[in-house]
Amino acid sequence: MGTSVQVKPLCGVYSENPLSYLVSVDGFNFLIDCGWNDHFDPSLLQPLSRVASTIDAVLLSHPDTLHLGALPYAMKQLGLSAPIYSTEPVHRLGLLTMYDHYLSRKQVSEFDLFTLDDVDSAFQNVTRLTYSQNHHLSGKGEGIVIAPHVAGHLLGGTLWKITKDGEDVIYAVDFNHRKERHLNGTVLESFVRPAVLITDAYNALNNQPSRRQRDQEFLDAILKTLRADGNVLLPVDTAGRVLELILILEQYWAQHHLTYPIFFLTYVASSTIDYVKSFLEFMSDSIAKSFEHTRDNAFLLKHTTLLINNNELENIPDGPKIVLASMASLEAAFSHDIFVEWAPDVKNLVLFTERGQFGTLARMLQADPPPKAVKVTMSKRVPLVGDELAAYEEERNRIKKEEAIKATLIKEEESKPSHGSDPNVGDPMVIDASSTHALSNVAGQQSGTYRDMLIDGFVPPSSSVAPMFPFYENSFEWDDFGEVINPDDYIIAEEDMDQGAMQVGGDLNGKLDEGSASLILDTTPSKVVSNELTVQVKCSLVYMDFEGRSDGRSIKSILAHVAPLKLVLVHGSAEATEHLKLHCLKHVCPHVYAPQIEETIDVTSDLCAYKVQLSEKLMSNVLLKKLGDYEIAWVDAEVGKTESDMLSLLPLSTPAPPHKSVFVGDIKMADFKQFLASKGVQVEFAGGALRCGEYVTLRKVGDASQKGGCAGIQQIIIEGPLSEEYYKIREYLYSQFYSL
């Protein structure tokens, strides 16, 4: 049998709920994503609570609440204590996202599911990896290798590859094959025939217009509103898709010299942009090349003002403006308050760039037709005054006194020497009052509880300890060089230093956003005051898909190319999941699964894998050729056994039969076209073929995949008369492969 693999969804199947899945590889339990929704509904985490203590490692794929929102709560309340792995942007931007959500919730409710300390503690345990970095697990996970790869969608977004004994388990949700302004497309298509592929059906029923058309419609809608003297609200996430929107607006404003003000409003806006500036290696090639040549950072914003407080926005002079404000769901935070203020004005526009989560105000407003009025709850935190303040102070003083008394008692208990279970036996200088009469003939009558030290003759002590002043033996260990110490006790961990420099809203210099810091450091007694009101929705409501996910047509094409041996579908509406399942059964592979919540499915590979040893005699005659990160060679050998009864490949006892040359590698015609052009060959695409020079033509024939998921055979055919040009093109073509 192959590597044992089981998948158990904990949340996010047959629905658009947050993502959380338990994947077991040979008994090693991975929790892949740990998401929560904007309602922070604890009932969604009940399946996770039942397995949290058994989890061996956590893998995070994207820096938003749907993928990591439950992490602080799970580590504080559910017993999750496993090491966590992510890319650097997922770690940093995920931390800021949780800060923003906590501060937003704290302003409108007595939010107590987790604190900022819980957020810090959770993200302190994250091991950060770079793209394509292989990380070898140890201990229980010995032999398992994990590696993050580019997913697109969000900055730092990850496809996880888990490898054991040569078999790959790929986790690929929320990926985007399109190259965007700040992100490269996914590398999912580079994986072919993995043992298991876990992917989502979220966009299986959606098709998208071209990027150019979508961007133009987006800008036209905004400019139409601004020129009519209206305001534009874009409800956005904290540090995800908002980055692409900011770049679109920045570039268009610079090209057309527009002066309408743009504001980015979250509790951690300035910190978000500060960190993003340092993540160029995770961004698109165009941004990286631009920085290399001009040292111009794309996120040195020239037209966007960063705000961290609603008061700053209120101080802006009246006039048309664009505000990108969190949260995208409109459930709380700045976007909620701005919507309530701007919705009654027919000149204004609320532009949604992602689908709202179920049960949220944003989802309600995206209905067709949208509601004409909505009921909302307006909440704000106000300082306590009068009798409420007096009662609060009295209660706080009472609690302080109780804590002081408790601390004193604990200190006294700790100061008493302990030599046994009997507290009076603990100190040889103290005796039980009940035994005083037994000692009266020896030491005379005692008025206290302390024994007379002037004893006439020998009297055995009442305890096993001889009467003496308390003495405690030093338990420190010593060696030839002195006291043995633990160096870790004197080293400030890198994570601690990072957290020290990065408190709430902290920028790269360790400074706090003033608005965020004031919320944390403000100890003024306060309460939350709420009132319900009905908002007349007269403004324009528009939805445009800027989610950064591949659409249904592209997903089907990519899955056919990857052709996994077994496919697991998660995260998507019931309709989308069933639609993609039926398609994949027909066109991708015969083993397609769509499990329910807490349903464990066994997707162990049907392949039989054997470990063999390469003998020294065999390898001494093998010529290895480097291919990327690997070395390859053609080997003719026979199977034998070593002295330890392990299978081994040995040199042939008879001469090896001849074999045809094998070309190893893959080539894209577009890349080969650029290669030929660099060699001075005139080349162009014509009729699906590549015309090289005057007489030679190259074409690819055969399908990338065939029905049932079997890998198809592709051939490159070179056509033309035998000539110097023909042989030169053929030599260039051969140079793109490795010949064995």
UniProtKB/TrEMBL annotation:
> What SUPFAM superfamilies does the record point to?
Metallo-hydrolase/oxidoreductase
List, for all copies, the residue spans of the domain called Beta-Casp. 242-365
GO terms (molecular function) for this protein are:
RNA binding
Q: Does the keyword Nucleotide-binding apply?
A: no
Where in the cell does this protein reside?
Nucleus
Q: Which GO terms describe its cellular component?
A: mRNA cleavage and polyadenylation specificity factor complex
Any GO BP: mRNA 3'-end processing by stem-loop binding and cleavage
Q: Which Pfam families match?
A: Beta-Casp, CPSF100_C, Lactamase_B_6, RMMBL
Q: Where is the Metallo-beta-lactamase domain?
A: 17-222
Sorted keywords for this record are:
mRNA processing, Nucleus, RNA-binding
Q: Which family does it belong to?
A: Belongs to the metallo-beta-lactamase superfamily. RNA-metabolizing metallo-beta-lactamase-like family. CPSF2/YSH1 subfamily.
Q: What is this protein called?
A: Cleavage and polyadenylation specificity factor subunit 2
